[in-house]
Structure formats: C-alpha cells, structure tokens
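The protein record filed here:
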Amino acid sequence: MYRWIENVIDKEYEIEKVIKRKKDYTIMLMTNKNNGKRVIVRKYVGDCVAYKALTMIKHRNLPIVYEAISNGEKSIVIEEYIEGITVGEILQTGHYIEKGVERVINQLVDVLDVLHSNNIVHRDVKPENIMVNNKGIVKLIDFNISRICNSTNEKDTRILGTNGFAAPEQYGIAESDPRTDIYALGILINIMLTGEHPAKKMCDGKWKSIVNKCTRINPDERFQSVKNILK
C-alpha cells in the first residue's frame, strides 16, 4: 500500500512548492495534474497512527486527512491544503489583542477537546502549527509527533516537542497526556499577548491566572481538561 501511494503521487501529482525539508521529513504543496486540486503531502520517518485516526475525525478546526500510510518505518500523509496564514506569521507583525486571543483559543479548546476525547495528544501546539484560513477559521496542523495516549506507559519512549512549548513530561519524565497540550496552550496564550515566553514576561489581567495554571510543572496542578480553561 505504501509503494502504491508513492506511485500515485509520482504519476498524478506535481510539486508546486517544498514547504519544509529536513533530514527525517519533507512537507510539500502538490497539485493534482488532472483536476488542479492542491494538497499537502507529508513524508517522514515514523508511524502515522495519529494521522490514521484523523482520517475518521471531521472537525472545522482540523485539516481533512485523505490518506495516511506507513510501511513500518516511514509514513506518507495526504491532507487538505489550507489557504491562510499561521499564527507565527501573524506574530511577526505584532501582538494579539485580547479579543483576538480569545477567538483563537476558543477554537483551539474546541478542537483539542475532540482530539483528547479520541485519546490523541498533539504534543506540538505552537504558533507555527496553527493556521488561520481566509474566513478566520483556526486549523490545528502538523500531527507528525502526535500520539495516541496509552495509560499503561510510565513515560514517553521518545523525547519530542518544541523547546519552550514542550511540557516537562515530554523530556522523558512521564507520559504525555492531554495536560501536555494544556501546558503548550498556556505558553501560546502568553506569547500571543506579550511576544515572550512566560518565564521572561508574564501577561496580565484575566489571562495571567490561566497561563499560570496551564504551565504548572506538575501536570496534576494544571487544568485537568482543556474545557476548563475558559470557564
């Protein structure tokens, strides 16, 4: 099946743009030669269990995942192309106002709640992985290091995540779970408001207590459900 998908991509699609290329993964914008439809194709080392789960989940704040295939070592994912801009790109021009933060976080809370209900932990919530399309709808992208939560594991078997956003447990201390995404969400909120990590500059107002609770070192002291963040 993996080889078949590779052949289909080679024959029916052409590369429009290489979005990112590193040693262990490549992300490309590709166009179907027959109908002109644009898709994102991800090729990377590792499994695609989370992406396979996403083929069964439809949500307005998720890209549609058309195919997710692995040969045991490498994976290929074909997903919806989203016309828009990342929160990271928006932050290059300045900070968010509080209403803007609330619009984005409300949508992220909604989609993370659905993911967590399906035992999917994103593990890399950060500005570059949050798209805002041309209609203002937030899309959470890039599930390369996401995992299916397994309560039988005492700690993560692989140390993955983005420095500054990764929760302490992602460094092999304990197992990632939904509270790992809650930690990253707290960092995200602070950066959207101040442009800085909370360790350097803490936001104020109603968001300060939210960020503080999201980013506790001990997961048991954080919000235990993403739904509780904005209550």
